[in-house]
Input
Amino acid sequence: MSSQDQAPYVAACPECDATQQTDSPNEIIDFYRRHYRVTGHDIKIKHADTDLDTGITAQDLKGIIRQLEEHHQNGVPVGIIAAVMNERGLSVKETLDQIHEIRMGGGLYEPQDDHLCAF
Ligand SMILES: [Zn+2]
Output
């Protein structure tokens, strides 16, 4: 596949050759969960729609989710959060671990599956 055919979201495992290309950011998360369950490997997002970061000035995960909510009123897809955090050097697993931690502290809620809002 040439780069011109590249899907909006591309993720790959740094430890083996598994890759996923998709139009839907949350399919990246599904790919990570399947791959992690079978292999224990973390994945990195290779490519994501680049305008995701536009207007995101927050540094912390919760603040970033709050800013992304302006464009995702019914909750920010976890895959988009992972893509933005990937730009900041976090792997998908690291992002999901942080989300879990903040949720346990009551800072986030999930209005629908795999979509998050900040309190
Ligand atoms: Zn792998």
Observations:
- DSSP finds four helices and six strands in the chain.
